Amino acid sequence: MNSFGSSRNASIVFILSVLVTLLLFMVFRQDTTPWGHWLVSLAAMILVELTAFGYVVTAMRNSRKFQMIVPAYLGSSIVIIAYGVVVLLDILLFWLVIGVALSTYIYLHLITAALAGIGIAIMSSAKNVIEQQEGNTRSQTQLMKQLQSTIFAIKQDLAALERTDLTDIHRIVAELEENVKYSDPVGHPSLIHLEEDLLWQAGELHKCVRELLRDQDNPSSPTMTRRLVRDIVNALNNRNQKLQLLK
Q: Closest Cα partner for 14 from 38, 41, 39, 46?
């Protein structure tokens, strides 16, 4: 189901919940029930439902982010649940049991709503920080994943070459693949240029291997291929050493 359909269903549930709340308040209202307290209580309950509805719709519209960083969204849900519980306690205790003055009752609900708003704002800020950190981590790991994919493609193309003079390249590329596989995928912002250069060199190496694959009868020595392999090995070792010092 798409986000539009999910939002529509959430809207229907919200409208029904508001209607049920209104009906419950109408059913249990007595002739002696003060209108002021009744209206404030009803408004407070509808505000809780509206807040929960807004949270659900936001989570649905950002379903991919929600699935990736569920803990970041759970903070707001806990605040909303706590808000609903406190509103119910306010109604039961300060209206039905103690029966405080209307002005005091309004202030109590305003304070409850304000505290809930502060809690949701704090959790939203924390969520944004976590999303930013997750985004940075994904962008930092993307280059190494691309490098690993390119090295694997190079190894596959080399396997199709039937030349005895490329034995050393086969060996070094296999070792390089293992080195990339076990290298820390999470880089450092200061090393981004090294990782981009690594990916570029791997692309150039792939081009050279494809040239050899297209012209296998050419007896010329693949000097450029060997040089690129050595450069990539040295660059990867340099990247990993610097990364260890930075972490």
A: 46
Please give the structure tokens belonging to residue 121: 């704002």
Residue count (the chain): 247
CA pair distance 71, 55, nearest whole angstrom: 14
Tokens matching residue 219: 């007896």
Q: Is 214 exposed, middle or buried (0-12, 13-18, 19+ CB in 10 A)?
A: exposed
> What is the rounded CA–CA span in Å between residue 52 and residue 63?
16
DSSP state of 62: T
Question: Which two structure tokens, joined as six digits, stand for 69?
Answer: 């960083």
pTM of the predicted structure, to 2 decimals: 0.59
Q: Within 10 Å of residue 49's Cβ, how many Cβ atoms?
A: 17
Q: Read off the pLDDT of residues 36-75 as tens digits, 9 standing for 90 and up.
A: 888 999 999 999 999 988 888 877 776 665 555 566 667 7
Beta-carbon contacts of 193 under 8 Å, excluding residues fewer than 6 positions away, are none
Question: What does each C-alpha distance from 228 to 147, 206, 208, 232 come to in angstroms?
Answer: 14, 10, 9, 6
